[in-house]
Design a protein that fits this description.
single chain; globular; 166 residues; 7-stranded parallel beta sheet; alpha/beta
Amino acid sequence: MRIAYLVFWDLGQESGVLKKIAGQMRAWSGQGHTAKLFALSPNEQKWAGIQDLDTEIVPAGNALARFWRAAALARKVLAWQPDLVYLRYATYYPPYERLMMAVPTVLEINTDDLVESRLTLSPLRYLYHRLTRHRLRRRAAGMVYVSGELAQRSTSTGAPWVVIAN
């Protein structure tokens, strides 16, 4: 199976999240799958701990540019022809919704996004998040929650789900 791992994350800096992403990809490869990391990232640098992973990086740019660059990244995912997309849930970009209609996509829910976005985003970006968050969730072929508490708080989309702790 070909698995595209799609993230909006800084790939140039070591972090717990990036170590988790690398571990997941290596686990999939160890099971005989082919995994490729696709990222909107602040730049095209790769942390030394992921140099061995197949990656496609599109520099994110400013907030407005991200919409076009998300489209470019989604086209790269489609051109790779994955059997499945694993999307670390974050900001909604319309190209991701179109991608989800073309390829079965599993969303990883790793935070209470409403609480976190209220604390970290500007009022305008928070409003955007509130108005668009359901668009990716309703298209998901499946959901992976990192805790039972997050799964309990989530509104059911009808998609199958599982809790897999970090």
